[in-house]
């Protein structure tokens, strides 16, 4: 029967993805005379333990069929708070008079009336994101552009959040000052039958789960129901993002409980376009910088985002900021701080030993105060010397090592959250978009980036989020077609030039692969191998964005050094170190000879040719972002001429492919091209680990 159950799961996924007004799905599996009843909600899959014999138990079979025919729609999975638009009236989608034409041309165009609470009614104008709706277990996030009863436009998000998790408003409220983080009007739990709509009580009616049985993994793509979406991602805001809709069937076991979830609505005032639709180098730099600043503001207010991805950084141009960090649903609030400055007085002899050792081995002179601070951060003098020597062997210069380790002292750093005190490993839920997560988080223990395991537990630390920002920036620089608002033609369905093979391979191994091992191995190769990033990845940056190579290289070195010298102070300084790199790049861009409106040209050959518009307010040389919808990217007319040929490499040659020999950068695993659907070749899958690996059960 397991094959039948798996097929039923696929049908349930289809229902959840195609009917946005579904809270859960019921399914019947009849094999001969044996009947199984299954229910799928956002907590997973639950079914009858033993089959029902419809011949020996006809009364039970009749009761089941009668229940399907007599129960109210909301008891069968429909959302009573959502009504369908038909002309000037609003009707229940289960009304017998409803026709297929009432649902519009696509899921994105279907119009709904959504009652969040009595007195809070919103009317959708279009769906902005439905990718996660098809998740068998997880958040099931759907986002609409809506209008209230006064015609004011906002963004409404529906999410099935963990019942123990804070709301996005809770996360945002930790900020006591203005910050480039999404502005949230309110969060409210949905109500059904005058009770909060949650999976345990409202849907499962308190039903407890028994032991799990074996089910195999289901991995099948869901096609987006958008008839007008072409192969160019500039025509659709959800194209080429990493999906979380690929759930896994995983046994709970006898000791584990399903994740109980509650349906929550979040009304946001912030909306724009995803950062991948940047139209100038200056806009990209400022939007990334603003998002990192917003993350820093959250961090020093005792909260962390924990899901950095291109889809969670918006270009807004709202008069205050160019970019804003959104999607706080995986965020976490911490109760305790790591107090600074560090006041544990190290032994004077240890200080003298460190001062003499670094002077003898590296030619560096330390003050007594600097030596004390280093010992408080790293431990013993011999450990610090050992780390410096290890960095030398990795071809980091003495100046780079010392400049990094002595960049500041603890008395100049504000207190920051104590992650390890807040969460035991057994209680931590892994969250994030897998393609952009730190490879360290994908491992069962923090041993990926060498010599750090003794300084950090396997919790989600702030350095992991900063690393995610790094991968997002790398992704944008190597996959976007310059500032044209579209994906590179080299990454299209057909291989146009053999010279594009390294680029396609790197993109697949770094971002598109389904294999955890490949993701881990590739990220380890880039951060651990000397010169690997410079020789293999930088040549693949789009020619129009090669002006960002200095920033990319500096950020890579910062991440490598930060992991290799990780200490108690790293979480308190990592943001400022990255922001300093962006400030330098923005300053260099601003000092370049002015070119007026040319700053938004389709080619960006060199930093020296770029003009930086003002950081605050709208630029006179850049088009304003469309308010009300983040699909403000350049629209491609169907009659437009064929795409140009791929841009040439900086040196006209293939990028070097590293090899796995010791002492050299490892070679990326080969990847066989996958067949694609109407979303285009190399489609990315937005994999929220909280969604993707949340268990299903029977």
UniProtKB/TrEMBL annotation:
Bias (Basic and acidic residues): 594-603, 676-688
Region (Disordered): 594-698
InterPro entries recorded: Kinase-like_dom_sf, Pkinase_fungal
Domain spans labelled Fungal-type protein kinase: 2-333, 420-477
Biased composition (Acidic residues): 689-698
Listed transmembrane segments: none
Gene3D superfamilies hit by this protein: Transferase(Phosphotransferase) domain 1
UniProt-listed SUPFAM superfamilies: Protein kinase-like (PK-like)
Protein name, UniProt field: Fungal-type protein kinase domain-containing protein
Species this chain originates from: Punctularia strigosozonata (strain HHB-11173)
